Amino acid sequence: MDAEIKDNPVRHRYELQVDGQVAYLRYRRMPGVLTLVHTEVPKPLEGKGIGARLVRHVLDLARSEGMKVVPLCPFVVAWMKRHPEYDDMRVPAEEPGLRA
């Protein structure tokens, strides 16, 4: 699976196309903060690590840009719990203005 994850800013999501299907991680961008809203992996692609690949890519990219993240997507929340090396990037969702 050598497909490239691409940002689709018009649709506010990072996308990965595999076998004619598109998996994505939808986001909202504010200055210095990336809110991760929803991860979608088509049924035929489930169980292949595609969701995890999307999350890791987006978090690594956000880190390289000096951004913090608000994980609203349950998949992202669960993934981040298993990968505490990303805890320093987390912004509590309760902070004013971050859920809008």
Distance between the termini: 35 Å
Q: How many DSSP E strands?
A: 5
Radius of gyration: 13 Å
Shape: globular
The helical percent reads 10-25%
User: What is the typical, i.e. mean, pLDDT?
Assistant: 91
Please state the structural category. alpha+beta
Order of helices and strands: EEEEHEH
Number of helices: 2
Main sheet: strands, sense, barrel? 5 strands, mixed
Q: In percent terms, what proportion of residues is strand?
A: 25-35%
Strand order of the largest sheet: 1-2-3-4-5
> Low-confidence spans: pLDDT under 50, at least 5 residues?
none
Protein architecture, described:
The radius of gyration is 13 Å and the shape is globular. A 5-stranded mixed sheet has the order 1-2-3-4-5. It has 2 helices and 5 strands, in the order ββββαβα. The chain is of the alpha+beta class and 100 residues long. The mean pLDDT is 91. The N and C termini lie far apart (35 Å).
What is the gist of this entry?
With 100 residues, the chain is α+β, with helices and mostly antiparallel strands. The chain is built from two helices and five strands.
Blueprint (SSEs and pairs):
Elements: E1 6-8, E2 13-18, E3 21-30, E4 33-40, H1 50-64, E5 68-71, H2 74-82
Keywords:
100 residues; globular; 5-stranded mixed β-sheet; single chain; alpha+beta; 5 strands
